[in-house]
Structure formats: C-alpha cells, structure tokens
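Page 37, continued from 36.
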C-alpha cells in the first residue's frame, strides 16, 4: 500500500535514500518511513508559509527557525535545576556493577523471556552467591565470561535506564526487579559505590543552560511535528502517537 502525504506519494527511491540512516532502529523500515512522512509534512508547511527554497534542507531549516522558538533559561532557572538534581552534576562518582542480560532479539517471545528472567531473579534474591554462575549460564552479554562483571562504571557510561537503576540502588545488593533497556532485560548486582564530588554551580551554569534549552527545544519540536501531522492528509501509515524523530 503506497504512503501518500498531502497528495504526494512517497517512492521506493525516497525509501532507498532514507533507509541507511535508520539501520540501528528496532524497525528500520517504519523509522525511515516516519522520517520521510515528517519531512514531507514540513516541506509542505514551508511551501504554505512562503518559505520553500530550492534546497529542501534549507527550506526545513528556515521553517523551524521561524516556527520553533524557545527561550534561553536564566540563572535562577539553572540554579533550581542544579539544586533539584545534584547527582547529575557530580564528577568521580563510581559504582561496581555486574549484570545478567536477557537480550531482546527480533522474533523473541518477550513474555516467555520475561518469565524466565523473573524466575532467575527470584532464585538469585534467595541465593545471591550464585550470581556469577547464573551469569555464565544465562547472560547474552560478553561479560558472562567474567561472571557478569562490568567493573566500575561512571555516569554516562551506560544507557540511562541502567545508569539510573545502578546509582539509585544500595551497594552490595541485587536490584529486586528486572531493569529494562533497549538491549533487553537485566538482573543487576551493585557492588561498592563512590559518591564523587559536586561541581560548583558557577563552573557549569552555561552547560546547564544549554542542556535545558535543548530539552525545551526538543519538546517544542515534537509538539510542532504532532500539530503538523494532525493537520496533514496521510494514508498508508499510522504515525499518530508514534515516536517522532527530530528533524535536524
């Protein structure tokens, strides 16, 4: 079934050109087609507002610069962020961690995988000394060869869900629930932890401002894309409520 956006039919050539940029996505075809739909919607809006240029990228840039604007946060806003989330602004924070990864692969029965992982977790909570042996037998991570050990990890070294779970947990214990990331389901044993030092606010105020501005911009971008998609005539694909990739 062809995908048509405002009477424009997306072609196989369009897909062939876009697809390589989405090879890491869980569903590369859906991700590429969604990006093509959003790009067409943006180009149509640029045309409607008299911002259509010869170059498509320039047209999209001109549209977004005009329509998606967010203020730069002031010092007081940055300070509130700094005080509310001090753990984000520490250096030298370390945690020892080991894990057992139940990898999610295409076609896997996720319910069965989760049940199996839950059984292994329950067994380990009763007998933590079996962790290394269970990791060697069950983990789909190369760390299984060393009993699941990842050594010392720092903030930013792992995916956010894994990091949050590790640094929020008590040292010397297995986290009593499965931790889900894009790689799969994890059973995590947290070892020793080092608190680290809080960076002075004056040294990182500009970095906090940049991060807050980017987050606001991303949020505004998603809202704008959802607005345009809601107005457009789209057939052949359902992207309502889908995760809309940001257009650069």
């Amino acid at each position: 079934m062809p995908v048509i956006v405002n009477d424009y039919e997306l072609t196989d050539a369009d897909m062939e050109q876009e697809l390589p940029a989405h090879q890491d996505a869980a569903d590369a075809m859906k991700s590429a087609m969604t990006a093509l739909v959003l790009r067409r919607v943006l180009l149509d809006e640029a045309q409607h507002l008299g911002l259509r240029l010869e170059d498509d990228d320039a047209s999209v840039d001109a549209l977004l610069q005009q329509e998606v604007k967010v203020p730069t946060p002031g010092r007081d806003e940055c300070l509130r962020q700094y005080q509310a989330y001090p753990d984000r602004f520490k250096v030298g924070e370390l945690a020892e961690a080991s894990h057992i990864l139940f990898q999610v692969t295409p076609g896997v029965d996720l319910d069965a995988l989760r049940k199996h992982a839950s059984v292994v977790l329950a067994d380990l909570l009763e007998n933590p000394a079996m962790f290394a042996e269970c990791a060697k037998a069950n983990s789909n991570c190369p760390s299984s060869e060393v009993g699941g050990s990842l050594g010392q990890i720092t903030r930013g070294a792992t995916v956010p869900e894994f990091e949050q779970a590790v640094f929020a947990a008590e040292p010397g214990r297995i986290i009593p629930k499965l931790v889900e990331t894009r790689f799969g389901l994890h059973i995590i044993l947290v070892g020793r932890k080092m608190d680290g030092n809080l960076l002075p606010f004056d040294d990182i105020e500009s970095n906090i401002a940049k991060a807050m501005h980017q987050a606001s911009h991303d949020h505004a971008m998603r809202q704008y894309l959802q607005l345009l998609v809601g107005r457009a005539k789209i057939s052949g694909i359902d992207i309502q409520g889908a995760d809309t990739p940001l257009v650069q």
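The chain has a mean pLDDT of 92. Flag for discussion at group meeting. The CA atoms of residues 65 and 139 lie 47 Å apart.
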